[in-house]
Target: S-acyltransferase
Amino acid sequence: MKLKRFLSLPVLSVFLLLGFIYYVTIFIFIEDLSGLRSSAGLVNSLIFSLLAFLCVFSFIACVLTDPGEVPSGYTPDVEENQSPDQEIKKNGTPARTCDKCSAHKPPRAHHCRVCGRCVLRMDHHCTWINNCVGLRNYKSFLLLVFYATLASTYSAIVIVSCTLQKDWGSFGNLRAKNIHVGCGLLSISLCLTLGSLFIWHVYLTSRNMTTIEGNRAGWLARRSVLSYNHRYDVGAYKNFTLVLGPDTLKWLWPTANSHIKDGLGFPTSS
Ligand SMILES: [Zn+2]
Ligand SMILES: [Zn+2]
Model:
């Protein structure tokens, strides 16, 4: 049952954190900055509520969407068997089957030890969503990081503005000062962490790489053993459309996934 994925401490912690940041940003800091009944307060609250809704929606989509499993009885066709697009293990041995599942593994699929199965176009297993990030939920994951970066940046700007405009000389409440500094540090740290993660995933998407492939490219580059030839890179714009879809109007909607194919083969540059 997919709903069971919500019953995990990291997933529940994300909901608690989101709820906490939503509450303090709107009911403490926007209220303090301009008052919730003023037009500025209302606009700020609406924008932040929209970002918070998009975060929660993307998060739920990430948790509930199956990243994609290898169909039972999958066998690679002859051409694919002979092509070099099968992954190469670090010792140089071609890995055509999964040792754990004792089954054929499509290109870019990997075995996840936590999920106990092979996942199509596997990116990584994410504890925070209690699910693998793979073929079918990578778009919602990318948008989750995008909306969470926007929301935490918005929250940080509101909190810092509120803190700076206060006359702390006459407002000597130590507890209030601690709340302002604590919430400010929390939102700024989230903003920097999520922002860095977002930049990394935008880079990976622009090269049509998964986190596993990006790390492998870095690993090979550091050792100067082999240059990593990523044959799935078909040009930055096309790479983005492969993840976000061909229709730019649907790029920002986490569940608009009708463009995703079976994940058993991928366009290549050669
Ligand atoms: Zn496997
Ligand atoms: Zn997994």
Summary: The first strand starts at residue 97 and ends at 98. Confidence is low (pLDDT under 50) at residues 80-93. The helical segments are 9-33, 39-64, 78-82, 138-165, 174-206, 211-223, 236-244.
